[in-house]
């Protein structure tokens, strides 16, 4: 059994780095707050006797030796960055839970056959730089490190510049740390476990993601003197797209969602009809065929709206992550650990994307979910209980022991 | 006849203060660029022998003596501030046209019976600070100067601070300069004169304006893991409001417009459902009953949308300007001047608000319109011809001479 109080303490100690007035965390990837939590994490890893390295994209790796160093390490961990108005658990539980596993094994003097490597992946959230799960995507070869290093945030700062500014452009090449498999603990970020009174979600699959950058070019003109029929209003166009996206997602049933999270009017003024808007779209489904249908429906509908309103709408697919089907053996290991420990559990699909989904494309991976209050995440009010967090970490530890061998 | 080349030269010389790459002007009220054009204007007024004063809200007044100084001056002028992506003519033609009238009278050695006062009103555009036509509104008593001085821009800078920062908080109390009447020359900012091939618009009325500040409070949550039916999406709410506003304006016929020009998502992120949006609304009609109906329909519809989507929407009416009916005698004077000079003309309603609309509430006022290309305004592509600008200025001069007496 892990030390529930120590885990809880770590979570709340690090929550000070970017703490918000509403009890959440604002710790954008590669920001000053991110540097603070990274420094804390490095020190904690070193104190736990781990061999710590940082790769060229800033991901932190802490290796615990195994008896058989020819075996690839069992990877565990998650991320420590947050949304602009994020919570204290998303990613953090999985990273500090991994640290807690190491501390517990150390205290108990348990050696494993295979080594264990705990990881803090850079930019999982995708809020400052797209795509999300950026570093693990590069790790599995979905993007080249150079491509990722050149990605820009809204201020034009590149990933490379941001890494340098906090001193976290590591000296190890991306992929230097081989892993044999990866298990990630995370809050569910959805309402199912809580609603069904289950403690552990055995994650067997994850939704695919489509991310788009969009730009609408209408025509700025005077709000008072431009008759309604002569307008080429970029905001009215966006409004139709937002509602169309909502209708399309609903049409494809419970297994699809669609969101426009960002929309910025260029040079806004009360009495000017918006002429130009940049926006983003996020569409998901656990079913690849539905993802294709979402993409098709969106493009057709947007083209119709643009033609009718005589505006230009450009849509650029910047990220496509297919649905994830986790490794059956690892899923069974998680399920077994939950059962052995006496926690109630159920199989579950992840609505959110996770680093484990990327890793699953080149190695066996799986995830452990615990409930979060009202299914709320990406919100400062995000909450989870100490017993649930401890339960998830215990399941993580027992899964690791089963895979790594004692 | 005014000096067309000199007028054109003034317009293009001052267009350098805030010139944009696309040939427009970005000269927000009380900005550094606004200071530059104000300094230019003061110098030009002094060189034309005018007695220049600045009031507590920064409006510039240049007085040309008349034979009978007991008579209240005939006021002419407009504004030199622009939209964020504005043109070279909106307001500028009327202000520099007024200067050109003075220069022409000086050159011709013409004395008038009543004095003439040319004015550059502060913040006509209403883009940086609300309401529009701010200084003339205070001049006629619609707002107290203290109220106006405390208005804030989006950065939190007050009008008072902005005035001080460019050294244009004048020593004269608002209203110190009495005027007997006011005539304003302006580009039409709409398509009618050009379409009908008329040179002069004799403005007999102006649309009323409703300005609202709005705020939507939904709930931030995860774009991937929040099912569509559980969302309280602020942007989807705004989208319904935008389209409802469009439908309501259209329903009330050609004599109504409605625009949402500003909308800002708080803490936007690609994978977060927008939780909070601040926005503005601008509704207009030349018919007071239609204005009331617009307000009523909007409030009802917004309440319905908010209830259905389980979000809060606050709507705050920050400005209500009733429709304007200009002074019949002054309208006739403008019409007569156009006829005498041989320009084609027609009566017209102003779609935009103007300082003359404010002044009309306490003194006789009227306006002269000239065509602008494709009716485009509040756009960097705004354009007008030199002959039309000269024609309008000639009509302004002859109207002034008729009122002031030679
Ligand atoms: N787990 C999580 O919130 N990841 C962020 C990436 C996404 O799914 O949008
Ligand atoms: N003339 C003009 O564009 N005024 C700005 C105020 C408004 O009508 O919105």
Automatic annotation (TrEMBL), chains A, B:
Pfam families: M20_dimer, Peptidase_M20
UniProt cross-references to Gene3D superfamilies, sorted A to Z: 3.30.70.360, Zn peptidases (3.40.630.10)
Cofactor binding note from Swiss-Prot or TrEMBL: Binds 2 Zn(2+) ions per subunit.
Span of domain Peptidase M20 dimerisation: 208-307
Gene Ontology terms, MF aspect: hydrolase activity, acting on carbon-nitrogen (but not peptide) bonds, in linear amidines; metal ion binding
Keyword Hydrolase carried by entry: yes
Cofactor(s) it depends on: Zn(2+)
Binding site for Zn(2+) 2: 90, 125, 378
Family listed: Belongs to the peptidase M20 family.
UniProt name for this protein: Zn-dependent hydrolase
Organism: Bradyrhizobium cytisi
């Amino acid at each position: 059994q892990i030390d529930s109080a120590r885990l809880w303490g770590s979570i709340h100690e690090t929550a000070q780095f970017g703490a918000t007035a509403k009890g959440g965390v604002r710790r954008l990837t590669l920001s000053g707050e991110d540097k603070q939590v990274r420094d804390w994490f490095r020190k904690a890893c070193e104190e736990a006797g781990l061999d710590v390295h940082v790769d060229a994209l800033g991901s932190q790796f802490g290796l615990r030796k195994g008896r058989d160093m020819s075996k690839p390490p069992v990877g565990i961990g998650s991320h420590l960055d947050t949304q602009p108005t994020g919570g204290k658990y998303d990613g953090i539980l999985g990273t500090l839970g991994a640290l807690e596993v190491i501390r517990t094994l150390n205290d108990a003097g348990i050696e494993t056959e295979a080594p264990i490597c705990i990881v803090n992946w850079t930019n999982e959230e995708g809020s400052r730089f797209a795509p999300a799960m950026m570093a693990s995507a590069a790790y599995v070869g979905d993007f080249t490190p150079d491509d990722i290093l050149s990605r820009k945030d809204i201020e034009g700062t590149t990933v490379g510049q941001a890494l340098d500014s906090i001193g976290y452009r590591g000296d190890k090449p991306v992929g230097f740390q081989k892993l044999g498999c990866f298990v990630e603990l995370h809050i569910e970020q959805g309402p199912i476990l809580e609603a069904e009174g289950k403690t552990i979600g055995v994650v067997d699959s994850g939704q695919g993601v489509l991310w788009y950058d969009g730009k609408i070019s209408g025509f700025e003109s005077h709000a008072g003197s431009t008759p309604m029929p002569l307008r080429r209003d970029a905001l009215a166009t966006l409004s139709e797209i937002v509602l169309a996206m909502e209708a399309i997602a609903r049409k494809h049933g419970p297994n699809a969602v669609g969101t426009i999270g960002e929309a910025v009017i260029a040079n806004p003024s009360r009495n000017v009809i918006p002429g130009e808007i940049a926006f983003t779209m996020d569409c998901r489904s656990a079913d690849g065929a539905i993802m294709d249908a979402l993409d098709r429906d969106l493009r057709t509908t947007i083209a119709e709206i643009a033609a009718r309103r005589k505006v230009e709408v450009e849509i650029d697919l910047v990220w496509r992550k297919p649905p994830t089907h986790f490794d059956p053996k690892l899923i069974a290991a998680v399920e077994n650990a939950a059962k052995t420990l006496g926690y109630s559990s159920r199989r579950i699909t992840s609505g959110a994307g996770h680093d484990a989904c990327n890793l699953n494309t080149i190695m066996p991976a799986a995830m452990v979910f615990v409930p979060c209050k009202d299914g709320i995440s990406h919100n400062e009010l995000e909450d989870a209980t100490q017993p649930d967090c401890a339960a998830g970490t215990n399941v993580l530890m027992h899964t690791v022991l089963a895979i790594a061998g004692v």
